Amino acid sequence: MPVAIITGASKGLGRALAEALAGRGWDLVLDARTAEVLQETAAALGKHGTRVEALPGDVSDAAHRAALVAAARRLGGVDLLVNNASALGAEPLVRLENLALDGLRHALEVNVVAALGLVQEALPLLRESAAGTVIDISSDAAAEAYETWGGYGASKAALDHVSAVLGAEEPGLRVWAVDPGDMGTDLYAAAVPDDDDPRPAPASVVPAFLRLLDERPVSGRYAAPALLEVAR
């Protein structure tokens, strides 16, 4: 069975994607910071009959990243790495004039440095896979200028560029930076707690990710809403 590592997998998009892959028979290595919620997620996904390893921890910790890859190696390798864990830099978001530099550093550390660190750790196994794939979860804030989203958007723009360069350097892999579009997640609620407008559930965009995995287009940046629109 193929093996995927998914970070930030206890809820939101990470859990929804893990659920879909488990339903397709994938074995999973899941990461999140909150152990209890992650274990509940792993138990629910295990009902699909696949193997699920849940490793709570912080992706900015090199030892934790090594443990994630080691767990995947025991399951057979790494066919897919999803860098979904993210940090906002400030909760709620603030204008750049008020953004604490330590908050920006944290966003860059989690969203860019840790993501690249996990790629580096998993790269030998990804190269061995017949369909080695990296999905880096981006944001429309990486490409558009929204007030208060400057720090988070800058970190995701940097992740986009890392993804693009990795795709050029590793032609044997597929490397996709994917903007999932608007979703109702805890991350968004923490970013803009006063916004009560309903947003789509994370599960609603999962078909866009499955389409990428099925069709395997060239490495690059993709937007889930566009993929869903074309699929209709």
TrEMBL record:
Quote the InterPro entries the UniProt record gives.
NAD(P)-bd_dom_sf, Sc_DH/Rdtase_CS, SDR_fam
Q: Report the PROSITE patterns cross-referenced here.
A: ADH_SHORT
This protein's source sits in the domain of life called: Bacteria
A Pfam family annotated for this chain is adh_short
Q: Which molecular function GO terms apply here?
A: oxidoreductase activity
Q: Does the keyword Oxidoreductase belong to this entry?
A: yes
One GO cellular component, as annotated: membrane
Q: Which family does it belong to?
A: Belongs to the short-chain dehydrogenases/reductases (SDR) family.
**What is the name of the protein in this document?**
SDR family NAD(P)-dependent oxidoreductase
Species of the source: Streptomyces montanus
